[in-house]
Write a structure and sequence with these properties.
Helix content is about 45%, strand content about 25%. With about 140 residues, the chain is α+β, with helices and mostly antiparallel strands. The protein has two domains: about 1-35; about 40-135, Alpha-Beta Plaits, CATH 3.30.70.100. The protein has a four-stranded antiparallel sheet with strand order 2-3-1-4. α2 packs antiparallel against α4 (about 115-120). The longest helix is centred in the first third of the chain and has 27 residues, at about 5-30. The N and C termini lie far apart (about 55 Å).
Length: about 140
Amino acid sequence: MKKLSRRLFLGNTTALSLAGFFGLMPAADKSKQNKKGDFVHHVYFWLKNPESAADKAKLIEGLTTLKKIKPIRLARIGEPASTNRDVIERGYQVSWLLFFDNLEDQEVYQKHPVHLKFVENYSNLWDKVIVYDSVDV
């Protein structure tokens, strides 16, 4: 039997530990991926005054207040990217992207007092809203 030095032993165990850790990384990443039934709610806002930076900032301020509603798993506020292809819609001023665990959580969000207050306080800013809801398959 070959004698194993302490240095060789530590090197081998470190290498095996790292290999094990990185070998598990794809499994960990997979757990972060959407599961079937996840509910995605994407809202696009066209402002009444699309050139008004103040109106846009006010709408973003209002959307930020919605982030504290509990069933929301992930929320993102966006604006049109600089991409330019025929299939890209860039006429809106602000987008609101939400992820929920399921349809029921999204319905809780819709009826939540903070959401209802948002609509009451900020709906005067937009001229048009389009919503795309989808369920992960």
